[in-house]
TrEMBL record:
Its cofactor is a divalent metal cation. GO terms for molecular function: hydrolase activity; RNA endonuclease activity. The keyword Kinase does not apply. It comes from the Bacteria. Keywords: Endonuclease, Hydrolase, Nuclease. This is YicC family protein. Belongs to the YicC/YloC family.
Length: 317
């Protein structure tokens, strides 16, 4: 019978603890303000978790209409997450008021008065007239597409860039804290796996001893003849059913990959999610095959820690 201790590589817990990568958190805040002779532009950016990139824009007209242009700037700095961008533009001096088409407005008001008189509802003249400015052709239409104003866009773009730089500074700082927590949980799993590895050789030995004890008891009670081949076959079958050496090797490899992704730290969130999923699969298999109470306790601890990893990784870009 092969020795499991020869087929399962040792788990180097100390190596994992020394990993010091920096990840990017998906939550943070950044703000910037730029002033020129003609403009004062303030931009605030708040980021929260999201599996994809989602942008919402609020603030001074007409910039909420140019989300696609703003998203191009955002993508230079951020890959995932929901970003709430608020842009406030303070224009110096007084801009010329948009010209109304007074002739069209007068025609609308005349039609309203005439229609109400014919219908015998003069009380509706005032409320209907109040909405005349929104009727087609009265006021200039606001642009709802294309590119932002040429005279303002360079300043707004620069302010947004600056706010995103500050956002990423905060995301990096928070990412360091997240990386430290991930590695702490990672070390717990590595320690539990190392403990399981030391228990594996004894599982088969203990089972063999239990079988022998039962057979000896049966011989003593009923005068049966001890069949050594039957005992050996039963122990061999048990050893095959409970052999988790491959699962332990794969889980060890996943742990190494997990630590390496944290070291690299560049857009590692989705990769970490996948590795955690694979770690969970191997852990479940070890728990179902091992057939040992002590190993089961370690597996429960590993599963609990994996859940903590899953929660933490949700905040990693």
């Amino acid at each position: 019978m092969r020795s499991l201790s020869r087929t399962v590589p040792p788990v180097t817990v100390s190596l994992f603890r020394e990993a010091t990568g920096v990840l990017l958190s998906m939550t943070g805040f950044g703000a910037a303000r730029i002033e020129t002779d003609a403009l004062g532009v303030s931009v605030e950016v708040r980021a929260v978790n999201n599996r994809h990139l989602k942008l919402t824009v609020r603030g001074s007209d007409p910039y909420p209409l140019y989300e696609s242009e703003l998203e191009k700037v955002v993508r230079r700095h951020v890959r995932r997450g929901t970003l709430h961008v608020h842009i406030r533009v303070e224009r110096q001096g007084h801009a010329a008021a948009p010209a109304l088409n007074t002739k069209v407005l007068a025609d609308y008001l005349k039609q309203i008065r005439t229609s109400c008189a014919e219908a015998g509802t003069p009380e509706l003249v005032a409320p209907l007239s109040a909405g005349a400015l929104s009727l087609p052709g009265v006021a200039p239409e606001t642009r709802n597409g294309g590119t932002p104003p040429d005279d303002e866009w360079p300043v707004v773009e620069k302010a947004l860039d600056a706010a995103l730089v500050k956002l990423n500074q905060m995301r990096r700082e928070e990412g360091k804290a997240v990386a430290a927590e991930l590695l702490a949980h990672h070390a717990v799993i590595a320690e539990q796996l190392a403990a399981i590895r030391t228990l594996l050789p004894g599982v088969v030995t203990e089972y063999r001893q239990r079988i022998l004890d039962r057979v000896r008891q049966a011989v003593a009670d009923a005068g049966l003849v001890l069949n050594a081949e039957t005992v050996i076959r039963e122990v061999a079958l048990f050893a095959d059913r409970t052999d988790v050496s491959e699962e332990v090797m794969r889980l060890t490899s996943h742990l190494e990959q997990f630590a390496e992704l944290i070291r690299k730290g560049d857009e590692a969130g989705r990769k970490l999610e996948f590795v955690i999923q694979e770690m969970g699969r191997e852990t479940n298999t070890i728990g179902s095959k091992a057939g040992d109470v002590a190993i089961s306790r370690h597996v429960v601890e590993m599963k609990s820690t994996l859940e903590k990893l899953r929660e933490q990784v949700q905040n990693v870009e």
